[in-house]
Each structure stands twice: as C-alpha cells, then as structure tokens.
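Sequence design from tokenized structure. All designs in this work follow the same two-part layout: the structure record, then the generated sequence. An example of the structure record is given first.
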C-alpha cells in the first residue's frame, strides 16, 4: 500500500469512526408517558381567503348583495335595481331585474367569483337562486357560465335556465355542466326580456363537494385535511375571534341556522396589511360552526372552538374598546350556549334543537373550549376568571384553554403562565413564529432562554398542559414555505413528542392560502381556483400525526436527549411506541450539511427484522418549495432498513442523509 492510499484509508476509517459515535439508546422495555390523541392537529383561520374562496366551495362572491358596496363582485347591465325587502331578515337586500324596454338591450348581472370561478369540464355545478315575480305570473331566468377572458366565438362554457312563478319568494335550482375546464369563469344571470324578476342569494356550488353536501366544502382541500389524520381541529381563529373591534368579532350564533340568513361580517384581515390589501374580504358565514363541527367529525379530530373573552384586538385598541367587567355576561353565555349546541339534548335545549334541525341530532361530543385568542396581561386575566367559574360550575368536564399571549418567552409570557396556573386552566395556548436559530436552539439565550428542542424539558409538570396553538419557522428574509425551515420545524417537534406528558396539543399555523389572495405566509396548504399543493411543512405535520404512537420511549445519546446539542452534529431524535400496531417508531432529523451515521440500540428487542422507513429530503436548493406546477417536488419517500441481532439487543445502523427527516417503524 503506497502512502497516498494509506492516508486515504486512515482518513476513511477516522470518518467512519466519527460517524459511528452517533449511538442512540432506545429503551423499548419501558413505556413512558401516554401520547394524547390530540397531540398533532390543525388550526383553521379565515385568513388568505381560507373560507370563502377557499375551503368553502361556494363560487359566487357577495351572493346576497350584502357587502357595503352591494354590487361588489358583480357587473350589471340594463335595468338593475337594489331593494331591501328580500326574504331573509338578516340579509334583506335583493336585486330587481326589469326588462330594458329595448329588443337589443338585456338586463343582466355577472359575478366574478373569487379571483374568477374554477370549473371543470364535464362536471356538474348546482346553481340556486331565491326569486319571485313581483307582478305575479311567470318569468324565466337564463344562466350562463362564461369565459370572457379568451378570444372564443362563443363565450358560453355551459348554460341552463329556471322558470320562476308567483309573487312569493321560492328557491330554484338547476344544474350546469361546463363543456371545458376554465379557472377564471364568470356567472351571468339574464333577466326575462318581458317580465320583472327579483332575485336573492345567487349561488353556485360544485355538485361534487366533500362528502357530497350541498352547502359543502371544496373536495380536494378537505381531503388534504383528512389525510393529515389530525387529532384536534382548532377554529375559527386566530385574530378573527377578537375582531378589529368587538362589533366585528366572530360570533358563532350568527353562523348557524339556514345559510341564507347568516349575516355578513367584516373579515379581520381585509385591510390589515397595506402591502397585500383586499378591502372586499368579508365572511358570509356559509362555513359556520355547524360545518366546523361536522368537518371535525368527518376527519376524526376533536373540535376545539375558541370564543371571545370580551376583548377586541389588544394590538389595535385601548381599554375603552373592550367589554367592561360588568358587560361580560353575553360573552359568557356564548360559551355555555355553545357547549349546549354541541353536546346538548334537542328535546330539552333550544341550542341543541337547532343543531338537530340542521341535520345532526346526535351530540358532537365537544371536550375543549378556548376562551380568548392571544390576549395578555391584567385585562385578559380579570375577564377570564368569570368565564372559568361559569363553565366549571355548569360543565366541569369541559377542558378550558387559556393563553400565554403572543410571545414565546419574556416577562408577559411568564406572567401569563402564572395567571393560567392560578386560574387552573387545563391547557395554555402558546404562539411562536420564530426564525431558524430559535427552532434549532441556537438563538441568544439571554433573549430566548427557552428556544429549540429542549424547550419543554424544563417545564413545570404540575401545572396546566401545553397547547402549542400557533407556530411556524419563519426564515430570516425568506418568509415562505421553503424546505429548510420545514426541516427545522421537524427538528423542533421532537421536543413536543419527547415531552408528551406536558405537551398535549400542537397545531401549525396558518393552514390555508389562495395563491392570488394571500396576506400571510408561510402556510400549510396553497391553492388556486382548480389546483392545490401541500407544502413541505404539511408533510412534516403528516409524518408526525400519522406516526404519533401511544407512549413515549426514552431515546438518549450519551445519556442526553438528542436535541441538536453540542457534540450531536445537528441531530434531533425522539421515539414512541404504538400499542395498536405493536411498533417502535423513531424519528431522526439531520440538520447538518453532511450525512450522519446513526446506530439505534433497541434495548429490550432481540432478533433480526426489516424496518419500514419514510424519508423527507431534497437534493436541490434548501430554498426550494412545492408549487402548483410541481406539487410533489418534495415529498416523503418510503424505504426499508435492516435491524440486526446485536450482542445484547437489536441494532439498526443507517446513514441519515444530510438535511433530512427519516422515520423508522420497527415491529417489536
């Protein structure tokens, strides 16, 4: 062997030797704390056109003409008149379509939808309208789906008609089947050329919604939620719970009952961001609390509604904008009434009766309620107390979730935790949108003492449990869903898993964003009018949620948690046991720029077997992300790894790729 070959061999041996030091002891013999079924879930807020224009499948914008500008979303031609004697008390506006009096002049209203309407060729769309003939007799409305953006001889993608009769308001429906796919369609409603007709609540839904419901959800987006296998679903927000002011806070009682009679509400986000300004962003409440509870049931998640504590957004308002201590009873009643709406007996409770009338006589079995979103300090603590007392007195089994405010650490955060302990909240909702250093645990400790994957190791085990209710890694100068920050979220989540005795819930935020209507990013799921893609953060959440196991297992390297600590070469790891499948699940995240050799000593397990693996990695730029055109550019890939019989226990040795998340499932 020449000197050059010898040097290379020695270097290779040294490298292998160094890599082999990443020995992780997984104690399979002793089951640790239970992992809650609610451990990994979803958080919904109507931001980025998440509801109307997103998950809610309605294609018509301002369908009841109730926006401050009643014709927002509409073009009108001919003799169109706005009236205020429609059939619905809370949405009284309607439109009169009168004959133009000229053969070549047509009265028509045309709706633009949300950034256009996405329709698929050959599929059915259900048009509906409430209409009357004010003078009596009969009239006909012609309905067209049109493409007026391209140079076609005929703009019509599909058309239908409805025959209207009589002076009384009635609902009319018809099916339109477009002949081709188009993402920017408009809907035209033509008035009768000879007879005056009044119309209200003009609606268009795909027949093919999630679970086939008429007032349904967009199928691909709802299915993506189901595919996460979430344990909990938090709704309806977020800052919209607070409102810009109390008048515009989210009020759940306005979101139930007939969809036509749910009043419009200003969306908290429509004018918040001047750089991404959407002044016509409102909530029709078509997607309301009944639909949220129904969705939770469909996807197998525990419902977690959050209600107002009587505080408007504290960032934007002084104390005089909030409900006084002597004005809280209606807010407290909202909490009690919601529990009864969700869980009560229709035979004895008026709110439960409404639930039954909406099609769900059985209870939704709600177990949790959040009171206040992201409030802080004495104004919140004082107001929360009577809520806790009232809920405990009437429904002691309901778990109450308070909040530690908008910060992840600091004086106000600590004050929040002290107050939640004093009031005996069951869980405390923590929010943290932080950068890469924070998630990796390398941020300055004088400013961020509890950052990274050791965050929860030192928490008090005797107080309330943790709900990590809003979090995401926001890259420095890279505030989008790129691969690198998603990987660091996976690394941080080993802390959630390792500390499952104290952390009972976690939900990434926000959930949805329309590619043309976003105001906040990163987000978990993106879409346009026809397509969608799952971000890398989605796949991280899914890998954890589908592999959460039932009990924590001790996993240590040199008797220390694997949390990117000194000498661990950027490795993070955690482990659980799944009693249902009889498998050990190990999650290893390598945040270093080179592959790391990992040896798993499976203490208490003997013999050989094949482990199933799931690996999330990307060989391109760390700034890369999934897109509408490349929705699966980065996604988990299945594989296998061999477990061999060691002297004392089974051993799995593997090279974990640079900048990757690898998961192992090993039959015990």
């Amino acid at each position: 062997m020449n000197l050059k070959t010898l040097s290379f061999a020695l270097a290779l041996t040294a490298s292998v030797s160094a890599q082999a030091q990443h020995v992780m002891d997984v104690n399979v013999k002793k089951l640790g704390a239970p992992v809650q079924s609610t451990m990994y879930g979803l958080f919904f807020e109507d931001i980025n056109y998440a509801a109307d224009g997103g998950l809610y499948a309605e294609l018509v914008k301002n369908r009841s003409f109730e926006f401050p500008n009643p014709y927002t979303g509409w073009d009108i031609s001919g003799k169109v008149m706005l009236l205020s004697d429609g059939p619905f008390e809370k949405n009284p506006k309607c439109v009169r379509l009168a004959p133009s009096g000229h053969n070549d002049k047509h009265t028509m209203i045309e709706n633009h939808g949300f950034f256009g309407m996405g329709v698929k060729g050959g599929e059915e769309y259900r048009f509906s309208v409430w209409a009357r003939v004010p003078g009596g007799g009969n009239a006909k409305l012609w309905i067209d789906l049109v493409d007026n953006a391209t140079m076609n001889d005929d703009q019509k993608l599909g058309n239908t008609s409805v025959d209207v009769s009589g002076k009384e308001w009635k609902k009319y429906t018809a099916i339109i089947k477009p002949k081709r796919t188009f993402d920017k369609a408009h809907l035209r409603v033509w008035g009768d050329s000879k007879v005056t007709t009044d119309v209200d609540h003009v609606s268009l839904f795909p027949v093919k919604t999630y679970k086939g419901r008429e007032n349904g959800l967009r199928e691909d987006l709802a299915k993506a939620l189901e595919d996460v296998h979430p344990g909990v679903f938090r709704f309806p927000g977020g800052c919209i719970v607070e409102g810009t002011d109390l008048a515009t806070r989210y009020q759940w009682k306005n979101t139930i009952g007939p969809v036509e009679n749910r009043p419009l509400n200003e969306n908290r986000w429509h004018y918040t961001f001047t750089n991404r300004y959407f002044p016509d962003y409102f909530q029709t409440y078509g997607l309301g609390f009944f639909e949220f509870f129904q969705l939770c049931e469909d996807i197998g998640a525990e419902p977690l509604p959050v209600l107002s504590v009587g505080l408007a957004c504290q960032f934007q308002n002084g104390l005089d904008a909030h409900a006084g201590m002597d004005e809280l009873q209606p807010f407290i009643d909202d909490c009690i009434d919601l529990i009864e709406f969700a869980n009560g007996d229709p035979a004895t409770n008026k709110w439960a009766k409404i639930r039954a009338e909406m099609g769900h006589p059985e209870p939704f079995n709600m177990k949790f309620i959040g009171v206040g979103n992201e409030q802080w300090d004495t104004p919140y603590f004082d107001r929360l107390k009577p809520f806790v007392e009232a809920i405990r007195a009437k429904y002691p089994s309901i778990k109450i979730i308070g909040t530690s405010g908008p910060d992840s650490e600091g004086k106000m955060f600590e004050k929040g935790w002290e107050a939640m302990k004093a009031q005996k909240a069951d869980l405390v909702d923590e929010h943290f949108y932080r950068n890469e250093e924070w998630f990796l645990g390398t941020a300055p400790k004088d400013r961020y003492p509890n950052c990274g994957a050791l965050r929860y190791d030192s928490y008090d085990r005797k107080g309330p449990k943790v709900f990590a209710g809003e979090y995401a890694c926001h890259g420095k100068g890279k505030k989008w869903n790129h691969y690198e920050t998603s990987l660091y979220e996976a690394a941080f989540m080993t802390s959630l898993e390792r500390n499952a005795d104290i952390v009972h819930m976690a939900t990434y935020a926000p959930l949805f964003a329309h590619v043309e209507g976003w105001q906040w990013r990163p987000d978990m799921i993106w879409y346009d009018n026809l397509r969608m893609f799952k971000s890398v953060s989605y796949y991280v959440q899914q890998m954890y949620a589908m592999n959460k196991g039932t009990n924590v297992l001790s996993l240590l390297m040199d008797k220390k948690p694997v949390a990117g600590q000194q000498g661990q070469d950027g490795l993070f790891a955690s482990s659980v046991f799944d009693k249902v499948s009889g498998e050990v699940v190990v999650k290893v995240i390598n945040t270093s720029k080179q592959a790391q050799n990992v040896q798993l000593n499976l203490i208490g397990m003997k013999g050989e077997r094949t482990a199933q693996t799931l690996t999330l990695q990307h060989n391109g730029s760390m700034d890369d992300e999934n897109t509408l055109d490349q929705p699966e550019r980065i996604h988990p890939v299945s594989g296998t790894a061999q477990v061999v019989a060691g002297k004392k226990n089974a051993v799995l040795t593997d090279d974990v790729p640079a900048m990757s998340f690898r998961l192992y499932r090993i039959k015990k």
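Residues 104 and 444 are 73 Å apart (CA to CA). We note this feature because it recurs in several other targets discussed in the main text.
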